[in-house]
Specification:
heterodimer, A: 181 residues, mainly alpha, 10 helices, globular, B: 250 residues, alpha+beta
Chain lengths: 181, 250
């Protein structure tokens, strides 16, 4: 029943990399917000990964390695350079709990798929990518730390800030809807 | 446990990232504190909403083909990595394996659920007096039968020259999602193929690959927005052979 998360010693690059194709594309498309750019990015990622495969340390996390290549390629692209603003205060953000406001709870229950997609699109890239890695890719904090090349403490604080930003956006959307009615 | 402490750990708890002791303490607290439980539920709903919303974009078949061509020609690695691994200090290996096991443990619970349910569906169908709703060895009869019964369509492979025979199909459900259940025969064995839209919470982002579960071998992958599972008590090689045939048709 064990599905190895570590790369198998004798696996070919194709055997390891092709199963990640659909998810890598989804992630690339979210990052670039453009189909053609996402396709170029995925292709560049596979080409770079193939070239660098001999330096990949077998037995370590292949998925995090692939995502890291994709993300670094994105950050050095024209779009990536424009959008990748650093998130200030990442390291010293204290992990304060959010307040449990009842109207907000109801709001989020009602938030439909399109609303969440719009809010994710509106989030700054560092918040968008960490939410996708955590919730969609279901990566562990350790894996996210490897992918983004940041400490686990920063993973936790950035996730906290990203979730809060998403809630705020959804709340704003909802208020906008109410005004429009 | 105080509510304040619990709230601060809720996200890590829901992400499956707490140590066992903290995890248990918070679980106990949530059973007795309605306010924190409501908070946890709300955060869980948010996680699910993001998961559903985030699985949004499907790549084109052309891109997949292009990538497949790029990666196909690569030979297998040599085994020199073993020496590099041996050179890594034992401590860092230990840390790595702990981290990996932690992650594997969390993921396994979900996989276990999906594969248990699929194994149940496979066994239940074979044990049934009427395992198939459409009985035909002709893929051009079986595929159209599903029209209007499930919210997607799929292609079935030509089996000529292979050991497999199509027996027929039925509509099935996994996590309240309708899908196609096809049964193939190889020698004396029957193998189930399940096809679902890759959008359900249970199957979304399940890692593709082979597993061995409860004496069954299984393989799963996504293709064209669909999630395929092949389950049976035959060898992993047979499962893979059938998977390859299906992949070539999809």
């Amino acid at each position: 029943m064990e599905v190895p998360d570590q790369a198998l010693p004798n696996a070919t690059f194709a055997e390891l990399a092709m199963p990640l194709f659909d998810q890598l594309y989804n992630f690339a498309r979210w990052l670039t917000q453009d189909t053609a750019e996402a396709e170029d990015l995925v292709q560049e990622t596979y080409a770079k990964a193939l070239r660098g495969f001999s330096s990949f340390q077998m037995g370590t996390n292949f998925r995090a390695w692939m995502y890291r290549i994709l993300r670094n390629s994105f950050l050095s692209s024209r779009t990536g350079l424009k959008v990748a603003v650093a998130i200030d205060g990442d390291a010293d953000e204290s992990l304060l709990p959010t307040e449990n406001a009842t109207p907000e709870s109801i709001l989020i229950e009602q938030a439909d798929r399109e609303a969440v997609q719009q809010a994710l699109t509106d989030l700054p890239v560092p918040f968008r990518e960490i939410l996708l890695l955590c919730e969609v890719e279901e990566m562990s904090y350790q894996e996210i730390a490897e992918t983004l090349a940041i400490p686990i403490g920063t993973v936790m604080s950035r996730l906290y800030r990203a979730r809060k930003a998403l809630r705020d956006l959804l709340q704003k959307q909802n208020q906008g809807d109410r005004h429009g009615m | 446990m105080a509510c304040e402490q619990g709230r601060g750990q809720l996200d890590a708890y829901l992400d499956g990232e707490l140590e066992a002791a903290e995890d248990n303490a918070l679980a106990t607290h949530l059973r007795i504190c309605a306010s924190c439980a409501a908070d946890a539920l709300e955060r869980l709903q948010m996680k699910r909403s993001v998961q559903m919303a985030g699985n949004r974009y499907a790549a084109s078949a052309q891109l997949r083909n292009r990538i497949a061509k790029i990666v196909a020609a690569k030979p297998r690695r040599d085994s020199s990595w073993r020496w590099k691994i041996l050179a890594v200090p034992a401590l860092s290996l230990l840390v790595l394996s702990v981290a990996v096991n932690w992650y594997v443990g969390r993921e396994n619970a979900r996989r276990q659920r999906v594969y248990s349910e699929l194994a149940d569906l496979h066994v239940a169908a074979l044990a049934s007096a009427t395992p198939l709703d459409v009985v035909s060895t002709d893929r051009h009869t079986v595929k159209p039968w599903f029209q209007g019964k499930i919210p997607f369509t799929f292609n079935l492979p030509d089996l000529q020259g292979s050991e497999f025979t199509l027996l027929g199909g039925r509509v099935t459900y996994l996590a309240q999602t309708p899908g196609a259940h096809l049964i193939y025969q190889i020698r004396k064995h029957q193998v189930s193929v399940f096809i679902f839209q890759d959008r359900g919470e249970e199957t979304a982002s399940l890692p593709s690959g082979q597993v061995h579960a409860m004496s069954f071998n299984a393989e799963n992958w996504t293709q064209g927005g669909l999630r395929y599972f092949v389950v049976g008590d035959v060898s992993a090689d047979d499962i893979q052979a059938l998977s390859k045939l299906l992949q070539s048709a999809g």
